Amino acid sequence: MRLVNTVPVLDEAKCIGCVICSSVCPTLAWSVDRKTRLAVLQEALCFGCVNCESRCPTYAIRMVPRKSERWLYVDPGQVDYAKVEALCRSARLHPEQIICFCTSSRAEEAAAAILTGSRTPEEISTRTGIRSGCTVECSQPLLRLLEAAGIPFQPALDGKGWQIYGTVPTVWDIPAAVKQKYAGRGFHFDADAVLMEEVAAGPTQTAGMHDCACRDRAPSVRGISGAPRPCGPQTKAGDARGGL
Ligand code: SF4
Ligand code: SF4
Predict the structure, then answer these.
(1) Helix, strand or coil for residue 107?
(2) Cβ < 6 A, ligand 1 pocket
(3) 232 domain residue, yes or no
(4) Which domain range does residue 38 map to?
(5) Do 76 and 109 form a contact (C-beta atoms < 8 A)?
(6) Same structural domain for residues 57 and 98?
(7) Per-residue pLDDT tens for 134-192?
(8) Tens-place pLDDT, residues 26-64
């Protein structure tokens, strides 16, 4: 979940068409016009991460307050939660596991975005706000969820593909020879894999329910339909957040 309350503005006199802004924007909101050599913003895609402002070499971009704020959130409660859970566990993630610490977004929210039509990391980001902070930690869980959903990775080539480098090896990918080589140096790949699988397979506590703290902060996100959804008796503000 993310509150988007700023938007970039361009000083055309300073723009040199270097495409750095379009290269660092997690949602592909910037492009550079081939004729004018000026950056062009699709404002609806921007979630206010400030990457472009901080990387523009000529200081042509400045973040300003939005005229109207908007919340980004996909409610897992709108989807059959058994499907949300199955997708998360298939990606070896616990549904209530925080996968984006900058926005306190859980795996279940990203899974719900995929199950309701998102097919790329950029589409998930635009709807959830995931990748609007450090833009690093959440990348791998997103790719694992997309892969688990049967959506193949699209490498960024010739201006196309996903705005993300690709997957990195996990404890499940370490070759036997590497495990053997480092076994005596304090690495415990197999034990780590068992522990991670136990974590991912653990029971859920607030499955498909709204988190009270979120609801208080963003009453407009009470379900995509707009109808308020009650919190369950076992739901407490902040529980299950950052716990895994
Ligand atoms: S990074 Fe700055 S100078 Fe480069 S294209 Fe974008 S706005 Fe223009
Ligand atoms: S603030 Fe972030 S999301 Fe918005 S245009 Fe800049 S890089 Fe893209």
Answers:
(1) helix
(2) 10, 15-21, 32, 39, 56, 58, 60-61
(3) no
(4) 2-71
(5) yes
(6) no
(7) 888 899 999 999 999 999 999 877 768 898 888 888 889 999 999 999 888 888 899 99
(8) 999 999 999 999 999 999 999 999 999 999 999 999 999
